[in-house]
């Protein structure tokens, strides 16, 4: 069954339909929100609030045309609401520990490379970071990203292109400074 079918079931009183949607989307949605907020507890709260909103909308009979972009839109808007709060406006910096030892050297290298990429992405503006996370970590298509963020497909394409260009500069600068994985 399609996600929209589960929303239809929810709208006619089948509360267990939400279970399937939670099963399908909790992990990828949590990963997306965590990458945006860099806070495990807050990410979990946002994901839970997202599913509560979905449940309430379903009970009201709302069935989105495309569920996947809709759920990411809800989560993205909740993240935006969080950022708007004055109490949450603080810069977050993470330190990389690039030391590798022992027989698990290659595993640590891969993890560090991934962390370096995430840290580099987090240096981008939220507009670029959001489209890149949705495209490359959540595997949404351009049209789905456009629906999620209420922007045109051309804006999505532009933000992805510019975001990748900025990311490339950050990675090259880090590499030049010796901050990267091999530094």
TrEMBL record:
Keyword line: DNA-binding, Sigma factor, Transcription, Transcription regulation
Domain of life, per lineage: Bacteria
InterPro entries for the chain: RNA_pol_sigma-70-like, RNA_pol_sigma-70_dom, RNA_pol_sigma70_ECF_CS, RNA_pol_sigma70_r2, RNA_pol_sigma70_r4_t2, RNA_pol_sigma_r2, RNA_pol_sigma_r3/r4-like, WH-like_DNA-bd_sf
Pfam families referenced in this protein's UniProt entry, alphabetically: Sigma70_r2 (PF04542), Sigma70_r4_2 (PF08281)
Domain RNA polymerase sigma factor 70 region 4 type: 115-167
Molecular function as annotated in GO: DNA binding; sigma factor activity
GO biological process: DNA-templated transcription initiation; response to stress
Coiled coil: none
Keyword DNA-binding: yes
Ranges of residues in domain RNA polymerase sigma-70 region: 22-87
NCBIfam families: sigma70-ECF
Entry similarity comment: Belongs to the sigma-70 factor family. ECF subfamily.
Name of this protein: RNA polymerase sigma factor
Organism from which the protein derives: Metabacillus lacus
